[in-house]
Write a structure and sequence with these properties.
heterodimer, A: five-stranded antiparallel β-sheet, about 60% strand, B: about 120 residues, mainly beta, seven-stranded mixed β-sheet, four-stranded antiparallel β-sheet, about 55% strand
Chain lengths: ~110, ~120
């Protein structure tokens, strides 16, 4: 079963608005990562937050992590049409050398 | 795409035939992964490798095998393809395991159709 579940499954906003996506997971983690996937392409890493961190910024991206609620959020500020993509959270856990991905949020940014 | 190529990029095959997908990297990264992506399931790990000749199963490994005889190449074989293996397959690499917190770099994907 998926470790991470994103919410909402789909999101449509206008350019300039902020987009917030949430990720919930089930077990303890070492880190949580967010990836973007443009249609027909491979995934691209956006940002990583470790389990001992609560918030991280990278450009227009802001990620929060609440380990007590087993949840994370990705905020994209001042969205652009080029942000249209699917966004996935992925968790790294325990001693396993692998990531577990969620099912993704499809973001549509319209002009 | 961070020096990762996948071949073929598209393949159509028939049920029961063996199929091999190749992932090639020029980054000298230790870790390599094979995922499949299906609607409603996100990415699911098939197999991964943590070094030459060192591989392990992921969550959906049944019907698949892998081999890694060189650092740069990771092969995924469908021993006898079935229609349920129709999917988009992605290879990824990482210099460190996710436990250590490093990112994965993804290849462009292979679209496989099993008739």
């Amino acid at each position: 079963s998926q470790q991470g579940e994103e919410d909402p499954q789909a999101l449509s906003i206008q350019e300039g608005e902020n987009a917030t996506m949430n990720c919930s997971y089930k077990t303890s983690i070492n880190n949580l990562q967010w990836y973007r996937q443009n249609s027909g392409r491979g995934l691209v890493h956006l940002i990583l937050i470790r389990s001992n961190e609560r918030e991280k910024h990278s450009g227009r991206l802001r990620v929060t992590l609440d380990t007590s609620k087993k949840s994370s959020s990705l905020l994209i500020t001042a969205s652009r049409a080029a942000d249209t993509a699917s966004y996935f959270c992925a968790t790294g856990t325990g001693t396993a050398s692998k990531l577990t991905f969620g099912t993704g949020t499809r973001l549509q940014v319209t002009l | 795409d961070a020096g990762i190529t996948q071949s073929p990029r598209h393949k159509v095959t028939e049920t029961g035939t063996p199929v091999t997908l190749r992932c090639h990297q020029t980054e000298n990264h230790r870790y390599m992964y094979w995922y499949r992506q299906d609607p409603g399931h996100g990415l699911r790990l098939i197999h991964y490798s943590y070094g030459v000749k060192d591989t392990d199963k992921g969550e959906v490994s049944d019907g698949y095998s892998v081999s890694r005889s060189k650092t740069e190449d990771f092969l995924l074989t469908l021993e006898s393809a079935t229609s349920s293996q129709t999917s988009v397959y992605f290879c990824a690499i990482s210099s460190m395991g996710p436990r250590d917190g490093n990112e994965q770099f993804f290849g462009p994907g292979t679209r496989l159709t099993v008739l």
